[in-house]
Amino acid sequence: MKQTAQIIPSYTGDTSGVCSALYELGGLIVMHDAAGCNATYSAFDEPRWYTQESLVFVSGLTEMEAVLGDDQRLIEDTVAAAQKFQPAFIALVGSPIPTVTAVDFPAIAREIEQLTKIPTMGFNATGMASYVSGAGMAFEGLAKKFVLPQVPKTQAVTVNILGVTPLDFSINGADQALKAVLQAQGLTVQSSWAMGETLSNIKQAAGAKVNLVVSATGLAAAKVLAQKFEIPYVVGLPYGPAMAQQLAAMLIQTSQDHQNRIFCQAVPASDTVIIGESVAALSLAKALAATTDFKATVLCPVDTFPELLTAGCIKARDEAELKPYLQQATTIIADPLYQPICPPKARFIPLPQEAFSGRIYRQAIPELVKGFTTFRRNFGL
Amino acid sequence: MLKPLGHTAMPTSPAVTLKSAQFPQPFADGLSYSVLSCGGWPLVQTGLLLPEAHLIFVCPQNCLRGVVLVAAEMKLSQRFSTVAVREQDVISGDMERLTIDGVGEIIDHLAEKPPAVLVFTNCIHHFVGTDLEVVYQTLRQRYPEIQFTDCYMNPIMRKSGLNPEQMMRRQLYSLLTPRPKVARQVNIIGNRFPMDPHNDLYQLLQHHGYTVKEVPRCETYAQYQTLAASSLNITTLPMAQSAGTLLADKLEQPHLFLPLTFCYETITENLKRLSDALDLPREDPAPAIAACEAALKAAKKVIGATPIAISFSACVYPLSLARLLIEHGFNVTKIFADSFIPTEKADFLALQKLAPNLQLYPTSQVQMRVLPKESSGKTLAIGTEAAYFTGTRYFVNLIEGAGLYGFDGIVHLMALLQTAFLEPKAPELLNQINQRGCECLL
């Protein structure tokens, strides 16, 4: 039966995904929920909670407010907090019960924006989808609400990096490595959504000539920026020097011919599988295929986009969907918490991800942009 | 030190002095902050106290995430499974089918059938009107060899009757089945930590030949079931009283609530009530009080006038503890609590006279997120929130008394205070404690 998990955990949900995407940008972020979502977020989904301030709070929804459809306390408490902090923006984020009672977050956001004169966004997160959906809607919201038109473009090939959160990249320096690798290839990074970045810089994103989507969380924003500002995009990650070179060439070409491209494509093979977020896993499969004999099929257990679901990338969300592929595999690259459902005979290569195992294996999460060769060497690939 | 956030105003401290505070709710409601290093304990950990039981959570993804990782961190994933509620389930409304089939699927694939299954439903079942009676009736018919109980992770109900915490502590005992009573056997129920066997309750009971049973000390499900043979249940925490009430009805076990306080008179009264309930001779408290006085004096000699901060989560009765310490010359300067137990009113009023400028801090108000986590000098903290917010490395890691109780509890606590004052702890310990409970679980 789908939807059951005998032993493996759940991925980070969309409510946390929104918060993760917006965490560093100086906004007041309010989860409209009773109590649990914020504790889960701070303890398991947000490694920056311990080191970096943010204004992520929970509304403390009660049974009576939900039954009566009373949004007034949410509005009043949010306005009161906004007056205390004067945030750069306000974001309201849904959760399961507001979904059931059909809370109209965009409408409440408009009301709060009128009351506070602070830009406000409402996100219909359900608490029933993955972080990819949540972070994706947050980045899409930023693209729609904040990116300024008519930002002058320079001579350089300028790039926005879209889809960077610790849920995919942890806090091991991958965000900085991405920038450094692109710069080393002669590209200029306009903005990085949204680690190590400011809202004012993101507002200037229309100055870029091309967007690089580094996780599925960035693709919806890329599509908005393509539509509003005619900025084309490339999807993929530069794992290792060879891929960095190829990706840079593709970014330059895309900035010139304005054809959107998918850089990360796998060469499918049933004996090796990689479980993970589509862009990261496909990029790893591509990098391995280019540098070793390894060909791998990607099993994607979280939300993604149809254009990424090719023969080399299969959506498999639940234990029941994953197991048939795992039974055929001789090598499995996945988060260590998948190991209990993998056949004991298969070779298991651990690749922890914050969005799956949280803080449990944080110290062992490899940085693959600059560290791909080391990763390969460590596991004899 | 947190990296500061730009573009924001710095709000004022939400602290109030005791003389100006309202009781029992000193602070207004509003948006809430999830405090780091909270002394809380997720429901899943309470459920996992039941030996050999399998826990199945039927919830949306966002709700599953925290509990499933708690089980993974405790390396108890093999006792924990989930059924994800998705949007189409809410729309179709067939949550009964999802719950029954999902739980059934998990049980069918377990290597060994557990003696008990705790099924946790959540807020969403309540709001879509899931017929839980049908769910449990069907499961019990389908798996007659397994005992099922209904557990709830529904924080939306926290202000409607029993909150999830009280429900969980009650349901942990709901699987006890009636059996003949055994002479001289007593339960202490509703605690997450086993009681210290040196404490006053244990000593009094064991001195008179009683066996004491507690769930946190049970290693098998069969041992758990022996609690049904006891002649008395003792609770020491307000949130455990619902368990006592349940067993008084279900198993006809009398219930004695003997609150965990730090007041000599109340402790004396508690021990008298226990002695009377079991027809035991009353003991003279004077020697135990003398031992407390000596311990307090010794601790005061070491700690001197160092400021002390206390968390609600450390002992549930922070005002009682503060009063004891202040009356013995200690310099208690801060209490971190969002609200107080109503029965602490006498201590609150007494402290208003004794220490009117003592500061009360909330733990979850939004301002606490950005309040500097530091103190001007050395501070001794009791409890994790107090340690975190004062930024001290000198703290006693105590949650809900952690098994300390009565006069012996006071003596033991004074020893812990002295050790904490002299031996700084690594701040990282607070992060590890978060969600896991006490250091003993690390």
From TrEMBL, chain A:
Residues 28-256 form the Nitrogenase/oxidoreductase component domain. Pfam families: Oxidored_nitro (PF00148). InterPro entries: Nase/OxRdtase_comp1, Ni-siroh_cyclase_CfbD. This is Nitrogenase component 1.
Automatic annotation (TrEMBL), chain B:
It comes from the Bacteria. Pfam families: Oxidored_nitro. This is Nitrogenase component 1. The lineage of its organism: Bacteria, Bacillati, Bacillota, Bacilli, Lactobacillales. It comes from Agrilactobacillus yilanensis. Residues 52-343 form the Nitrogenase/oxidoreductase component domain.
